[in-house]
Amino acid sequence: MIIGLGIDFVNVNRMRHWTKTDGIIQRFFHPNEVEAAFSRGSSAILSFAARFAAKEALGKALGTGLKGLKLIDIEVKNDHNGKPEIILHETALEAFMDMGGNAVHLSLSHENNAAVAVVIIEG
Description:
Layout: E1 2-11, H1 12-19, H2 24-28, H3 31-38, H4 44-62, E2 74-78, E3 84-88, H5 90-98, E4 103-111, E5 114-122
Antiparallel strand pairs: 1-5, 2-3, 4-5
Helix pairs in contact: 1-4, 3-4
């Protein structure tokens, strides 16, 4: 049964600014996300934007927004086929368990100056 649904849209220019500001990327993104995004070269900005949208969408699906969550505790990665997935750590995992979640689904898309993410939580 679906117990949470969230969607978020991010303007890519926001990420351009963040990559030029010391410490912001490291504060909001898991180290694995940072490494994966920068390995994409010129599309790193799109990767950061999509991943940030996923973090915001997860907060909406949890029904709490980002209150009480550390963004670094929400890791977005791609499986061996390229499918995006969310790995929850510490504060995010605790909120997920507290709401009775047992599975989380993620879809990402980006183009030019926009990225969007949809998160569904099953309980």
